[in-house]
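PAS domain S-box protein
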Amino acid sequence: NVKDKGRSGYAFFHPEMEEKSLEQVLLENELRKAIELEQFHLDYQPKVDFSTGELVGMEALVRWDHPDLGRIPPNQFIPLAEETGLIVPLGEWVLRRGCEQNKEWQEKGHSPMRLAVNLSVKQLEHPGIVQTIKKVLQETKLDPNWLELEVTESIFADVEHAASLLQEIRNLGVHISIDDFGTGYSSFSYIKHLPVDTLKIDSSFIRDIHQNEESQAIVKAVLTLAKSLSINVIAEGIENKEQFNLLNEDGCQQGQGFLFSKPLSSQDFEKYLQNQ
Ligand code: C2E
Ligand code: MG
Ligand code: MG
Ligand code: MG
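Structure:
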């Protein structure tokens, strides 16, 4: 267990490491190796249309199975990858693998689906990001229409820069969605100025939507906003029927969550595609 390994708080090695725990340093080394050895794979979670139950797309989620430490969850290694800059090569690997896989499914004859890939703000801050996306699309020969990039509201710390960057990416023909919507910086008033296709309502509002009037009010407000701006909406983290029913009554049309399916391995996702 990674958590129990390096709780020692003593200062060691170089001054620049002061802030890092031994655990972090070890994990950082492992992460570096894992990127070189490509020890990652992607799982895919279906996005579903409420009225038909049909698949409308899928989200790629990176998985790291460490040979000794076992599965390390993204919430543990993504922040570390961001701090160390390793998110840039890791993120490029994820993007390429996702696009390759999507293209492969299309070539096998499955109906084309939009695949969403998460982009961290650190990747977007990297000067080569637009070029990287362009290159990966060319190399994998995936039609950009079948790629969606999920970004979080944290990029809107600098709204003007975010708007022009997203516009550049969107000009490639790629779709943009705002992940974890409602938890961050975006104010409802400036969403209309941003080149965005979809808002993903954060799972924290869905989790207690059936028990908490404030959550339900926020969800309704997002749905109203999106409708008036002709932006698509999807709810994430739907686990039960009560949540689903409320969302459906409120006019939400798409969702993602354990109620429909957990993230699946590529093999299992392909079976899911076959059953569509
Ligand atoms: P996210 O992009 O908001 O992804 C949704 C997370 O919720 C995923 O966790 C997914 O497995 C989980 N989830 C889906 N449905 C349900 C549900 O009904 N109930 C609950 N409790 N959870 C559900 P995961 O895979 O552990 O990823 C966590 C976060 O790590 C992601 O949040 C995303 O921010 C980040 N992440 C994952 N893969 C990547 C990646 O390839 N690149 C980057 N930059 N970040 C990634
Ligand atoms: Mg996401
Ligand atoms: Mg999310
Ligand atoms: Mg998230």
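Residues 28 and 229 are 43 Å apart (CA to CA).
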